[in-house]
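User: I want to check something. If I give you two sequences, will you return the structure for each one separately, not as a complex?

Assistant: Yes, each is folded on its own. Here is the first sequence with its structure:
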Amino acid sequence: MTCAKTQGFLAKHKVGIASQTDAKKATIKGDAALSTLKDVDELYVAKGKKIVHVDLKRDKPPPAELLGLLLGPTGNLRAPTLRKGRALIVGFDEATYKRLLG
């Protein structure tokens, strides 16, 4: 459902996609999920109505804490996950998308 919202947002705001992976076909778990943070300075995670922001340049959370933010209940990287420059956005939050992608 949130992936459909994301696709709708991207289309409405004419945001181009450089590459896309289907999370159902290509699952990303554990250390591979942590590797999505390579060259990322800011992490934004939508959890319900709450947005968690982690400044990865300033804060150095332990891998277990990062995995708790990145992974869903199946142990896979949560979808949708988008990267814009040096920011990674996990989950859908329209206000965050507008601020970072708009």
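And separately, the second sequence with its own structure:
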Amino acid sequence: MQRLVIVSDAWGQQVNGVVTTLTRTCQEMRSRGIEVQVIGPDSFRSFAMPGYSEIRLAILPYRKLAARLAEARPDGIHISTEGPLGWAARRYCRKHGIPFTTSFHTRFPDYVRARLPIPTAWTWAWLRHFHSPSAAVMTATQSLEDELKSRGFDRLVRWSRGVDLEVFVPRLEPSASTEPCLLYLGRVAQEKNVEAFLALQDQVPGRYVVVGDGPIRESLQAKHPQVEWRGYQSGQTLRDSLAEADCMVFPSRTDTFGLVMIEAMACGTPVAAFPEQGPLEVIQPGVSGGLSEDLAEAAAQALNCTRADARRRAEHFSWQRSTDQFVETVTRVSSNRHDGVTASS
């Protein structure tokens, strides 16, 4: 594998797990001498996705995208998302008999259902159709792979996630606070279930902090003025917030992984979550956090964990190992292409 093109509707200035994963994977591949080009919506006329103003969706991108792909002449093409660019790249690859890989990052049916009265069965059928010609569908966890398999998805392979253990580090001094600090980190949006975190105030005493922004922040902040709302953070400021917390609460039931969990654990902060797909793969109950259908119980478990154990759990995840999995898959598909194997119809 010498040249790879990644097509993604999530790129540029967006702040989410997809962009973080692609950014770190590209950095690692380039350090290995692989030429990587990411084609995102910033190269096309676009409009803001309803409810997600920071996400831009390309308008009728096929002709321009096809020209870019033809000019790049990559050894492999990876389609990261199921948006307009993803569909255009899929169309190009099928038209020219080029095998390609895809990845499943988002439980899109749950996101849609939270906003519109569309049966999830319809959205799952749409996603299954999108991924059906893919030579390999990459998934972050075994539990997600099992679910996709039960829903009729084929050719599933693993692509885990990593954390920068030199950026996300534990605090050096013990907390001077006499009450625990519970933190939520992520998009403040309906599908993230932030209300479940805020509801813990009636059950788990402590100082509550929200790091992140989104469409329902204003309304939630008005209802919970006692909570510390820090907005979007990055770099050292984000690291300091994570290291300051005694427990990070991850209330989402829709994420397929949840990078912020291992970033928190790398800072020595245990994580409390529901026993859903991402947390089940990441958290060791009673060691690096707590898992329970009762989120207050999960938080109590997490607050009893040691910061050293949380850090040790995070050290199992690396971008090097994650990139190994990605490169192995795209290289195998590229080799099949040169051997005369084309994408399935």
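Because they were folded independently, the notes below concern the second chain alone. Residues 181-314 form a domain with the Rossmann fold fold (CATH 3.40.50.2000). The chain has a mean pLDDT of 92.
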